[in-house]
């Protein structure tokens, strides 16, 4: 597709569909080689999708989380890794939008994201703490108007390809592990020494290798709000909702393959009910449940945005956790049903009905922020805050 001669349709959905068409062409190669989906990300930039969440007065379009979730679903139907990169970028943007609009430097940075279509990476994991993003070992050092940080980041989302990285650390060397800040470092303000290789079963194109991060920048690039507030009021909800939307997109594409397979079988034997038709109906019902779960979560989040106390409440955290748990656990059975319908043609690689990539990518859903960790946190919140949540007597 020639990006210089795009169609006249500039609706958000149309722009995402054009990105999806490009992502689909390269999805299998991205997966097979474990390479960054450069073509899809370049298409996102050409369609000006990386700044859409940023408010209009900072150069963006002020798009809602619900609108962005729909784009995640559209792109994921073509390439889950491309959709994950888009989602993780938007999760980082949500932190800037929610907690940086009153800071002059961060407002300028948001304009730069829109103007230059910068891709934001994330570095919240660390050697010694694993995926527990609410703890840090490293601490940022502030001297005068400069800050320095060194972090053993076991995973940095598409680290080699990001234009800037938002990274967590303790607020100062004497701070406890949970007293954290998040800092923006631009590409020319840090070095990355690779320590781990992202050679995974699925989501291979996210290229989230591990690095020793060393950065130095003006101290004004530290976000003004504590990371505890950022995590509770933007990262928690946007992560669970956007990830759920893209996982749903994987399942939708698996359903489409199964539906196409059954239609082909029906044409070969007119007047008979093709095998798998009942299973297809079951898949449709299950997809509707997943979609309703996500939509309910999106409505809850966008209502909570008007009330900071609600955003930080235990009840809201439990609700968002439940969206993620339900979505991540329901998509694999749907894809497995599609595999049973398509049979050996779904099992084989290189056919129009191949589902191996879908299954491998979908297994990430229960592992990205481990469901066991989330369930453990949720059970603690339910016990301690049973009156607020109303889920225990």
From TrEMBL:
Required co-factors: FAD
Keywords recorded for this protein, A-Z: FAD, Flavoprotein
Ranges of residues in domain Acyl-CoA dehydrogenase/oxidase N-terminal: 24-103
Keyword field contains Flavoprotein: yes
Secretion signal span: none
UniProt family annotation: Belongs to the acyl-CoA dehydrogenase family.
Protein's name in the database: Acyl-CoA dehydrogenase
InterPro entries associated with the record: Acyl-CoA_Oxase/DH_mid-dom_sf, AcylCo_DH-like_C, AcylCo_DH/oxidase_C, AcylCoA_DH/ox_N, AcylCoA_DH/ox_N_sf, AcylCoA_DH/oxidase_NM_dom_sf
Domain of life, source organism: Bacteria
Organism: Rhizobium wuzhouense
Acyl-CoA dehydrogenase/oxidase C-terminal domain boundaries: 232-366
């Amino acid at each position: 597709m020639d990006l210089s001669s795009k169609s006249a349709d500039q609706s958000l959905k149309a722009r995402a569909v054009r990105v999806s068409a490009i992502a689909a062409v390269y999805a299998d190669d991205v997966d097979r080689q474990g390479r960054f989906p450069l073509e899809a990300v370049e298409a996102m930039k050409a369609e000006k999708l990386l700044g859409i969440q940023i408010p209009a007065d900072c150069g963006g379009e002020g798009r809602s989380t619900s609108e962005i979730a729909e784009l995640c679903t559209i792109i994921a139907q073509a390439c889950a890794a491309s959709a994950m990169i888009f989602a993780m970028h938007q999760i980082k943007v949500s932190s800037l939008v929610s907690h940086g609009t009153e800071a002059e430097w961060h407002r300028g940075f948001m304009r730069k994201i829109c103007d230059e279509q910068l891709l934001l990476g994330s570095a919240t994991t660390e050697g010694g703490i694993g995926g527990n993003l609410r703890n840090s070992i490293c601490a940022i050092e502030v001297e005068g108007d400069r800050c320095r940080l060194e972090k053993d980041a076991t995973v940095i989302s598409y680290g080699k390809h990001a234009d800037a990285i938002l990274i967590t650390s303790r607020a100062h060397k004497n701070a406890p592990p949970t007293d954290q800040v998040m800092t923006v470092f631009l590409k020319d303000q840090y070095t990355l020494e690779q320590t781990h290789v992202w050679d995974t079963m699925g989501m291979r194109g996210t290229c989230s290798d591990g690095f020793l991060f060393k950065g130095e920048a003006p101290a004004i690039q530290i976000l003004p709000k504590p990371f505890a507030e950022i995590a509770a009021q933007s990262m928690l909800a946007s992560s669970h909702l956007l990830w759920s939307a893209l996982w749903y997109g994987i399942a939708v594409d698996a359903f489409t393959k199964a539906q196409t397979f059954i239609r082909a079988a029906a044409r070969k034997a007119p007047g008979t009910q093709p095998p798998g038709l009942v299973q297809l109906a079951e898949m449709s019902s299950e997809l509707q449940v997943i979609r309703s779960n996500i939509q309910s979560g999106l409505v809850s989040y966008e209502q909570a945005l008007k009330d900071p106390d609600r955003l930080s409440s235990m009840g809201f955290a439990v609700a968002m956790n439940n969206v993620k748990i339900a979505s991540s656990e329901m998509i694999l059975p749907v894809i497995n049903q599609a595999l049973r319908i398509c049979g050996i043609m779904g099992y084989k690689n290189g056919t129009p009905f191949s589902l191996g990539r879908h299954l491998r990518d979908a297994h990430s859903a229960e592992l990205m922020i481990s469901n066991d960790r989330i369930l453990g946190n949720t059970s603690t919140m339910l016990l301690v805050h049973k009156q607020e949540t109303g889920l225990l007597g």
